[in-house]
Amino acid sequence: MRKVLGIHEGSGTHWVGDGFPVRTVFTPGSTGGRLSPFLMLDHASATRFGPAEHPRGVGVHPHRGFETVTIVYEGELEHRDSTGAGGRIGPGDVQWMTAASGILHEEFHSEAFTRDGGTLEMAQLWVNLRSADKNAAPGYQTILESDIPSVDLPDGAGRVRVIAGTLAEREGPARTFTPMDVWDVRLAGGRPAALPLRPGWTAGLVVLRGAVSVDGGEPVTAGRMVLLDGDGGDVAVEAAGDAVLLVLSGEAIDEPVVARGPFVMTSEDEIRQAYEDFRAGRFGAIAV
Ligand code: MN
Fold it and tell me: What separation in Å is there between the alpha carbon of 82 and the centre of ligand 1?
């Protein structure tokens, strides 16, 4: 069984643009690379927005050196980027954006959500790339709810949606640069389950809703990440009531991580270059 290395408290709530009241659950600094290739996770717990005239969110900004993975639990978002890609994602959908050599994008509530108002819950995960892949072309994958295979846990303990990686021979649709599992897990209250993690990979469980006991410990409430030891296989989980977890597990990238604002590189020089390239307009443009 997997052992718990530590429980990461999220930050207080802060706003990303005017659309996303998030709690930062972990950062490169807080994990010290022990959850590589996963860098950072922001969670906006369910928040009610009234109708508005203009979409709330974050205007055009750059990224380089990693991938952003946006998972919508409730509400609807829209995205546009400098590769010409764009899309609308709703509950259960995922947007997997590869910034790599550089991208500009904007992230807003959808037009319909803005007009009607509603409840928004989402998470955004940052996934690192190997140094050799940080120069790759930027890209964008829209992964719809219906594309994501679902695996039932034994004894009615819940179900696992495989966004990336593999579980019970079901493969997640996300194309990744390095091997990883990203699972959206729904646990039924009072039903113990063993989640089969791959030995030797880093692993963390992010509690998004409810409270979950991990390896027999005290229940961990929403907005926290349970960092697990890399050794061992299954992890024992049990939710008090219904709970939602995000399971992150992967092959660590053993390289320096220098994260500054919207860029994640391997040295300060590369960060300076990223800012210079952005100022010089080398990240392209978003078509109007
Ligand atoms: Mn962004």
Answer: 12
Contact (CB, 8 A) for 125 and 68: yes
Name the more confident of 230 and 186.
186
User: What DSSP designation does 217 have?
Assistant: -
For residue 269, how many other CB atoms are within 10 A of its CB? Answer: 10
Give me ligand 1 centre to Cα 237, in Å: 32
Check residue 201 and report its DSSP letter: S
Distance of CA 238 to the CA centre of its chain: 22
127 Cβ contact partners less than 8 Å away, ≥ 6 residues apart = 37, 38, 39, 66, 67, 68, 69, 176, 180
Longest CA–CA span in the chain (Å) reads 58
CA of 106 to the centre of ligand 1 (A): 7
SS3 of residue 202 by DSSP: strand
Give the mean model confidence (pLDDT) for residues 225-232.
Answer: 93
* Phi, psi dihedral angles at 54 (to 5 degrees): -120, 140
List phi, psi (to 5°) of 229. -65, 150
Rounded to the nearest angstrom, the distance between the alpha carbon of 122 and the centre of ligand 1 is: 14
| Residues 76 and 108: beta-carbon distance below 8 Å | no
Residue 225 above 80 pLDDT? yes
CB 6 within 8 A of CB 227: yes
Ligand 1 centroid – CA 54 distance (Å): 19
- Order of strands across the sheet that contains 77-81: 57-63, 103-109, 77-81, 86-89
Expressed in angstroms and rounded, the spacing between residue 153 Cα and the centre of ligand 1 is 34
Question: How high is the pLDDT of residue 287?
Answer: 81
pTM value is 0.97
CA–CA distance from 164 to each of 55, 84, 93, 109 (Å)?
Answer: 30, 24, 13, 25
Q: 79 C-alpha vs ligand 1 centroid, how far in Å?
A: 10
Our CA dihedral for 174, 175, 181, 185, rounded to 10 degrees, sits at 0
CA of 94 to the centre of ligand 1 (A): 14
